[in-house]
Recover the amino acids of this structure.
């Protein structure tokens, strides 16, 4: 019985109480998603809506995300904002949600196909990776790269996109002999440090380092410092967390590429609120941007300094 | 009559559909050896578990030297000086003989090593353990550091008996202490029981071995179907009479029954 | 449960109950295999990884053009062989199941990622997705084929454990392995069979998983092993082996799913949900303990 | 002399520093009751474990009806028709009486239910279990569905004895089967042993109860320090002589020793 | 090991061995507490979460201007209290440790994340970072204060387990709880003390963790619980309780660290590393099993 009433309630404004918005992040663990959640929550409150935040248990928890979507739909939310763990993992649940008249918006990560959701607000992670790559390449100048790569989680969509983008920016391909080591870090500082220590133990001729995010960068730098290599190696990162910006300012690594989760969250919430009011659905991919942050700007690369960075960082 | 050292009235313990103790009474007097006999499953072990704190009865009272006591754990009974050899022996299999003998009553080194650093005196414990086993005539233990799980059935039982004998300070309860023991070793345990009694401690002995019971007991408590049916003196009764009482072939009031020391008319 | 039905009006609808069951199916199926292994005194840390590899094999073969029946057979074979390897190591080399399945976990997880070549495989095949489909009973309750399969599997396992000699041997094994050996039970053979059968059950779980999410992802179900052990233990099966039941596992799996689902629907954020879940799981088992103690 | 039904020569089993079997010989003839006696830790249980496949000896040979056999597991011995009551009983504690009696030899329903669906005939097994226990005089088991871990010591032992009695098809070995049993129940087990012998099966009985041994045994195997020292006939020897042989107070060759049936001069 | 030293010339340098020890310190310390609990027949799934919360408390208090000694005391208190809660639930309500610590895991993890308010806390404090510092022995081997602390902690625990009555009671408890009860051991008190002491040990692990990485991150050490159990089990301690040793745990923790580090340095890709680790862990335990069987 409830099925029918719910599918009818999608477009109209006949429901009582505040608009309910569901937010499904990949995990609760990553500060990035925490920021996303907090921004969404704050913005929803301001807009007179209620936000219910749910997360998967780990990066890749499609099952958890699907269950979350189902439970949110059951709860009667108007719209769902989701950062999909896997671009193809949750299509069925999204389709069902849409069928029941719920607005579905992807944040941060695209789905595949893209029209599985009504709209996407995200960083273009390939672009972000490319910016990091270009900067590191420029920082090396004419020196031939000796690259170590601190990857994220094997098989993750974002992880793969950044990795790919970085190599594009560097003008390298997977398997190039210039890449002297690759290790997964799961974006975890501890793992990154151990991995870097071990890689350095094998080959200390490194002059450039790719890191999937700022915790990984911190781990890598700690290991480099212990080997007295800090400052001699061009380390780049992605994220734009406040601690990351501070690290750049302190010169721990050269640059980071900032994302704007707050923007994604706010735009997403606005879209659902608007939809609840007049039934208008947003469409397409909205790039929320990626900004290179460094205090050592290099020619040909648009960048902002850490002062700007610390005003716009996300957590 | 003097006050019994240990007394129980109307103990009851039920496990779902099974009644293990069904209103049992019990009296143990100072300085005596009381044998408890009864068929398998009569509830002897359950009774002494209740008396030694291993089991909390559903009903009934226990009196120690005339005053009511409640044992909440075996430790309470132990603190009261009651030492028990359980039928299941209660040994830790993966630990060695000396450790088991002193479990819960470890000996520490003298001086600051013991009082501050709590260092165990392993040598002393080992030595005493060896002495105790020798006293019981268990000479076949080839290595005092052997784990209990590698001991033979009789050796294991000897460890349990030795432990109770060492630490009993008020009374000693033994549930079939000689069941797995050899001829010589059983003799030694009987001697041990006599020695304990001679120290003035009463001993409760559960046994299926009638000659043994008649040899050593001052009184015989006959248990049947979860309660005490009779208490007789070995001098007044024959083995077959006692066996008949156990199996129910003879009832305490019967004309050819031996004189009963307790009043069972209440039930 | 009472709390949920009060705070959220939708919670007690049949529609919703069907949803909760669907959400718990995969973990429940994993927990079914886990129950067998735990009953023998073992533990399986690799079950979810084996299942995920199963989904990968199914999906990739179909994606690359295999017939879906062939893919299904291959998937079952892979899971069964992995179960047999665990069983063989535990039985033949007499290794602790924790270590063996931990090793298997690492290896199988890596194998899945290597085999996936970094991507996930969406499947649209009818046969592979069939367990997610289903009809409506009385026009309201959605009953998927997966649910029916699960009922059948639990029934069969219950029957095998309680009504056949094999089941008794499984319990005896967990109860006291030495006694089981001395009574002349084929200890090794029985233990091996348990790991093998568990492997096959994980293949069914893989099929269920594709029915629910038609996308094979090497990173999925990373907490499936702990989740399944949780269901088993909440269901009252002892991790020391020899005591417990399949029906307990069903209840355990449902309790966890109901908690999760009820808390989300009550509009509680996931971090607070975690707090509540943790407390409620302990409370559920404590309650069970008290009830049991009273009924003795 | 006829070929022994079961024979062992020079068995050895060492556990690190401990030698449990030290070159033991053994002979069991068809239709006899052979008592094995010896001190605690003499190695009796280890010997029969070797004979029943529960333990693989380091050295020595076992011959079944004259031909050499190697038991790799208790199952092998069981398949050969050797049924054993182990001193540790070998029962699964969390399972009920009937289940334990039929463990490894479950009865299935007749017809397709049994052959195809492998359905157990639980009713039949329960019934037979009850019958067996009754035959042993264990009447105090209040509920046949009781788990073995909730049984009294004697009840548990009765279950183990009943099991061996039910299934022995070639010979039955009993390691202290009456240790925990009451007077009446022990009688019943002795009767049972006689009945088994009368069926033509030889029985090995380990016991510390000398009167019992002398009552029932056709021959007495005396074990000491891991090996056989003598085999005597009850008619030729007194109990105290046998006890002296066990403890080493008397040696087989001594002038006042009873006639020894085996040659021990080799060692 | 031999393999590594051949394939990578750097592997056998003292410098490198020091590194491996540093990498294993936190997990080894967690495993020390875990050993105590496993010896009683329990298991602790929450240890890493408790430790992480400990690092959060330390770091946040210092960041917010507390004196670092005060922060340290607070951190130790938090870990001890959490240990006491687990111990209390296990002891008083007689709940399975798996369930209790699973519940604690969920709750404490969430608590850590809530407390962190979404960020991680870098610390530059001298006292909190002191365990990562250290000097050079013979001018070559880096010996950190953390290493020395770990040696002291393992030695004390070894002493307590093997040379004091308390230790014997811990073993007896795991060996046969009923026998322990009947012999008059304070079963409840001893078990509780084990969880409490383990909590304190986790606080030391938190301190060690900040010494190694001066940044408290609520998401760190997510596999710390399994890693520590692995070290315990590889070290030969039985999950059924009552058998095992602290020295085994040291070896277990080092084996895992050496494997990981050696494989990375041998230039093996991480996924193949996982495969190799899984296989080598099983092989290590199997080898140990064979050696022990022969020596009997
Ligand atoms: N935990 C329990 N649950 C159910 N029944 C029990 C339990 N413990 C004992 N019983 C039953 O209570 C009765 C008395 O058992 P108990 O062990 O006291 O007998 P017993 O006189 O010591 O026998 P035995 O001479 O064989 O040692 C038995 O029928 C037994 O099956
Ligand atoms: N697994 C083992 N490890 C070490 N020693 C053992 C092991 N098994 C038995 N022993 C030792 O071997 C010897 C013989 O033990 P066994 O159990 O055969 O004696 P038994 O004659 O049956 O004694 P009882 O009459 O007490 O049952 C004993 O000294 C015992 O301690
Ligand atoms: Mg008894
Ligand atoms: Mg024996």
């Amino acid at each position: 019985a409830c099925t029918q009433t719910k599918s009818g309630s999608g477009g109209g404004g006949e429901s009582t109480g505040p608009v309910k918005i569901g937010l499904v992040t990949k995990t609760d663990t990553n500060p990035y998603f925490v920021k996303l959640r907090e921004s969404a929550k704050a913005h929803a409150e301001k807009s007179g809506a209620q936000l219910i935040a749910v997360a998967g248990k780990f990066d890749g928890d499609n099952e958890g995300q699907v269950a979350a979507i189902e439970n949110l739909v059951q709860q009667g939310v108007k719209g769902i904002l989701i950062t999909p763990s896997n671009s193809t993992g949750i299509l069925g649940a999204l389709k069902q949600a849409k069928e029941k008249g719920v607005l579905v918006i992807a944040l941060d990560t695209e789905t595949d196909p893209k029209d599985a959701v009504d709209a996407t607000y995200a960083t273009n992670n390939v672009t972000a990776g490319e910016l990091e790559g270009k900067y590191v390449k420029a920082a090396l100048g004419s020196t031939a790269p000796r690259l170590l790569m601190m990857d994220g989680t094997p098989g993750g969509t974002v992880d793969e996109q950044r990795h790919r983008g970085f190599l594009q920016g560097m003008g390298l391909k997977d398997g190039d002999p210039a890449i002297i080591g690759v290790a997964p870090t799961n974006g975890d500082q501890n793992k990154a440090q151990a991995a870097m220590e071990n890689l350095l133990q094998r080959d200390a001729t490194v002059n450039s380092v790719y890191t999937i995010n700022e915790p990984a960068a911190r781990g890598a730098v700690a290991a480099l410092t212990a080997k007295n290599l800090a400052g001699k190696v061009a380390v780049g990162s992605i994220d734009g967390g406040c601690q990351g910006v501070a690290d750049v300012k302190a010169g721990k690594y050269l640059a980071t590429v900032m994302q704007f989760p707050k923007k994604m969250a706010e735009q997403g919430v606005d879209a659902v609120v608007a939809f609840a009011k007049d039934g208008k659905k947003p469409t397409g991919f909205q790039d929320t941007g990626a900004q290179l942050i460094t205090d050592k700007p290099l020619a040909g690369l648009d960048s902002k300094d850490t002062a700007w960075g610390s005003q716009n960082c996300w957590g | 009559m003097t006050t019994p050292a240990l007394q129980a009235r109307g103990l009851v313990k039920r496990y779902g559909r099974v009644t293990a103790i069904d209103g049992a009474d019990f009296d143990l007097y100072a300085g005596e050896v009381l044998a408890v006999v009864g068929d398998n499953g009569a509830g002897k072990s359950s009774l002494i578990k209740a008396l030694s704190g291993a089991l909390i009865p559903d009903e009934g009272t226990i009196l120690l030297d005339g005053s009511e006591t409640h044992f909440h754990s075996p430790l309470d009974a132990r603190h009261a000086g009651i030492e028990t050899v359980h039928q299941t022996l209660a040994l830790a299999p993966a630990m060695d003989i000396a450790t088991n003998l002193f479990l819960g009553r470890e000996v520490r080194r003298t001086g600051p090593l013991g009082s501050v650093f709590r260092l165990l005196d392993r040598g002393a414990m080992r030595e005493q353990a060896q002495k105790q086993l020798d006293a019981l005539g268990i000479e076949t233990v080839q290595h005092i550091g052997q784990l209990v799980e590698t001991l033979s059935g009789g050796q294991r039982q000897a460890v349990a008996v030795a432990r109770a004998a060492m630490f009993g300070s008020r009374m000693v309860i033994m549930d079939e202490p000689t069941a797995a023991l050899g001829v010589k070793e059983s003799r030694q345990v009987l001697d041990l029981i006599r020695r304990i009694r001679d120290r003035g401690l009463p001993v409760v002995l559960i046994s299926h071995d009638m000659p043994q019971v008649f040899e050593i007991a001052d009184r015989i408590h006959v248990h049947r179907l979860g309660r005490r049916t009779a208490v007789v003196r070995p001098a007044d009764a024959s083995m077959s009479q006692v066996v008949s009482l156990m199996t129910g072939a003879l009832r305490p009031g019967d004309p050819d029954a031996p004189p009963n020391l307790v009043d069972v008319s209440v039930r | 449960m009472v709390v949920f039905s009060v705070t959220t009006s939708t919670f007690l609808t049949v529609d919703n109950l069907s949803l909760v069951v669907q959400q718990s199916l995969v973990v429940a199926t994993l927990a079914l295999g886990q129950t067998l292994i735990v009953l023998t005194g073992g533990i399986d840390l690799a079950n979810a990884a084996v299942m995920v590899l199963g989904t990968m094999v199914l999906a990739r073969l179909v994606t690359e053009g295999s017939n879906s029946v062939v893919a299904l057979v291959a998937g079952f074979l892979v899971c069964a062989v992995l179960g047999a390897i665990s069983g063989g190591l535990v039985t033949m080399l007499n290794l602790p199941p924790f270590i063996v399945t931990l090793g298997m976990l690492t290896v199988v997880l890596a194998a899945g990622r290597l085999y996936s070549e970094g991507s996930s495989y969406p499947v649209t095949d009818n046969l592979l997705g069939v367990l997610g489909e289903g009809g409506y009973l009385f026009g309201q309750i959605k009953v998927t084929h997966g649910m029916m399969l699960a009922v059948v599997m639990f029934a069969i396992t219950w029957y095998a454990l309680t009504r056949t000699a094999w089941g008794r041997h499984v319990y005896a094994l967990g109860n006291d392995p030495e006694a089981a050996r001395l009574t002349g039970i084929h200890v090794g053979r029985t233990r091996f069979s348990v790991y093998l059968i568990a492997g096959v059950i994980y293949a069914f779980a893989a099929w269920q998983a594709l029915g629910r999410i038609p996308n094979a992802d090497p990173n999925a179900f990373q907490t499936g092993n702990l989740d399944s052990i949780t269901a088993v233990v909440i269901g009252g099966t002892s991790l020391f082996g020899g005591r417990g039941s399949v029906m307990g596992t069903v209840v355990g799996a449902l309790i966890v799913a109901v908690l999760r689902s009820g808390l989300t629907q009550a509009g509680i954020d996931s971090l607070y949900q975690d707090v509540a879940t943790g407390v409620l799981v302990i409370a559920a088992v404590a309650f069970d303990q008290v009830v049991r103690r009273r009924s003795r």
